[in-house]
Design the sequence.
């Protein structure tokens, strides 16, 4: 139990489709992950979060589950999965599964039985009559679709789906759904998984299906965000199923502010261990994520500080499979890809909380280099593009939205080598490999002791072995237009962390002078009074 809740945990997220293909079908697979376990162990991580590997028709790349107890055939077999768990364990690595229980696939047996008229399974979903020829309510949808789709051949019945129409929402008012999910959790816990990353977990329980207050996005969300029903379900799952196995949970919790996050993961509430909050991902957005402005470092610092201060412990991350690559968000990145990647490694490993890094982040992968919409596969990108078109947004703006924000930016195949398809596959990759793989790849990084990955490795080792960085208190020291300085302290020992979040040289703030000794810098030749572009520096007192 202690191990997985440990403050020394470092989590590495794998998007299996894009990690490593061993069969030549252009899609990553479980054997590919097994083949890279030594690489991951060497990096120093001790937990893997696997994006969904369950059987799925792939409308949303596995976040539409057709069978919670079966492995997606294109990823391999259950035996492969069991081998992965065992091989990972042998290297001291635990596996977190992705638990997607807001919705199933429409191809799940439950939904198929519901369609066939079985009343038991009909009540697993949210099916309602339209109102006077109109939809059951005015709610919005996360994927820019209509959240209601006609149920089978029915004339006037619809099912609710907050995501794609192939992802019908489960009815969490039905106790049978809870029992099914308990059984699914136990199935995977018995296989030795360490815990779960819980997909959009704070929206699962809908209080009512009343009309919502009209809003620019997600009208209706007041009826399902962080409801008491959801809190109760989380407490039940933890007490009855997760706790006996010592399993860890991290909730993906959309639209959480600090109080909502605390309600979900404050230790005394016994719900989740940590949450992924989104506010720091939104500092460069205007109303919705599709419209972005320049990233203002000071806003990012203020947001990080706010969350660091407010939560006793939390998940910390800058990248995942839904977000553009973080370094690509720096408007002034210029030639500083390596420097910025190292600085982000330093920042992630010195903030308080459990660090989550995403595949490719450790080698400084950038956003996909897509040229037009035909190269983008993600359902959300296509839906949003279509919606923007229906609103008569000019083609140039539409493409900019997708290019900058599409989730496929982070889903491009992992870049292992400078060779064909970056060594990801011998076949045709399911998503275009970034052309920069000739320069940005694991092979090159492994040969470079001053490289991005080497710096990640150093920072991961330090974070795991150092009690001040792992457990110390956080205090913001300085938030400037370029430089972020904060202190981590424990038992009279203290570190000052300095991050230059810009491509300009920056003066070291006066407040930093109390820390006299240079412990480490991401820069070969650190200057006396200044930080180099995107430099990360650690000082001791
Ligand atoms: O994401 C939920 C979510 O709200 C967003 O981050 C999502 O990526 C989308 O951009 C909303 O605009 C989770 C998963 O991480 C995502 O991959 C799934 O598509 C989604 O749930 C549905 O299961």
Sequence:
């Amino acid at each position: 139990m202690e191990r997985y809740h440990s403050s020394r945990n470092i989590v590495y997220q794998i998007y299996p489709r894009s990690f490593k293909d061993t069969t030549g079908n252009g899609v990553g697979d479980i054997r590919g992950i097994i083949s890279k376990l030594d690489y991951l162990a060497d990096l120093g991580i001790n937990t893997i979060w696997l994006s969904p590997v369950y059987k799925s028709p792939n409308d949303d790349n596995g976040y539409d589950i057709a069978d919670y107890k079966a492995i997606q055939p294109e990823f391999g077999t259950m035996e492969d999965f069991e081998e992965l768990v065992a091989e990972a364990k042998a290297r001291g690595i635990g596996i977190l599964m992705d638990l997607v229980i807001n919705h199933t696939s429409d191809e799940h047996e439950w939904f198929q039985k519901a369609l066939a008229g079985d009343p038991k399974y009909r009540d697993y979903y949210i099916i309602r009559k339209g109102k006077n020829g109109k939809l059951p309510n005015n709610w919005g949808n996360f994927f820019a679709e209509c959240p209601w789709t006609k149920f089978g051949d029915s004339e006037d019945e619809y099912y609710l789906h907050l995501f794609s129409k192939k992802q019908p929402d489960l009815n969490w008012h039905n106790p049978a759904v809870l029992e099914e999910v308990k059984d699914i959790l136990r199935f995977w816990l018995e296989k030795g998984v360490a815990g779960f990353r819980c997909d959009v977990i704070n929206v699962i329980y809908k209080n009512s299906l009343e009309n919502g207050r009209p809003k620019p996005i997600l009208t209706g969300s007041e009826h399902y965000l962080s409801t008491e029903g959801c809190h109760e379900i989380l407490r039940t799952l933890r007490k009855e199923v997760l706790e006996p196995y010592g399993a860890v949970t991290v909730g993906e919790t959309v639209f959480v502010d600090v109080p909502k996050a605390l309600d979900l993961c404050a230790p005394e509430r016994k719900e989740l261990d940590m949450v992924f909050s989104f506010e720091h991902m939104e500092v460069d957005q205007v109303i919705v994520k599709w419209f972005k402005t320049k990233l203002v470092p000071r806003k990012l610092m203020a947001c990080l500080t706010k969350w660091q201060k407010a939560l006793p412990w939390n998940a910390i991350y800058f990248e995942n499979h839904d977000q553009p690559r973080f370094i690509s968000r720096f408007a002034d990145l210029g030639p500083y890809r390596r420097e910025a990647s190292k600085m982000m490694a330093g920042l992630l490993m010195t903030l308080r909380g459990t660090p989550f890094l995403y595949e490719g982040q450790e080698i400084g992968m950038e956003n996909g280099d897509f040229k037009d919409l035909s190269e983008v596969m993600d359902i959300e990108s296509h839906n949003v593009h279509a919606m923007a078109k229906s609103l008569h947004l000019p083609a140039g703006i539409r493409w900019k939205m997708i290019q900058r924000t599409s989730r496929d930016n982070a889903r491009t195949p992992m870049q292992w080598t400078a060779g064909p398809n970056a060594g990801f596959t011998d076949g045709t990759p399911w998503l275009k490999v970034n052309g920069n793989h000739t320069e940005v790849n694991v092979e090159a990084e492994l040969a470079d002791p001053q490289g991005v990955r080497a710096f990640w490795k150093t920072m991961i080792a330090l974070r795991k072995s150092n009690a001040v960085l792992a457990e110390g208190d956080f205090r913001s020291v300085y938030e400037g237009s370029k430089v972020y300085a904060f202190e981590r302290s424990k038992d009279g020992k203290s570190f000052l962390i300095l991050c230059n979040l810009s491509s300009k040289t920056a003066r070291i703030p006066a407040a930093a002078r109390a820390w006299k000794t240079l412990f480490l810098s991401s820069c070969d030749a650190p200057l006396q009074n200044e930080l180099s572009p995107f430099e990360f520096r650690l000082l001791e007192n």
In short: The pocket of 1-O-alpha-D-glucopyranosyl-D-fructose is lined by residues 60, 63, 100, 142, 163, 199-200, 252, 254, 321-322, 380, 407 (CB under 6 Å). The chain has 16 helices and 22 strands.
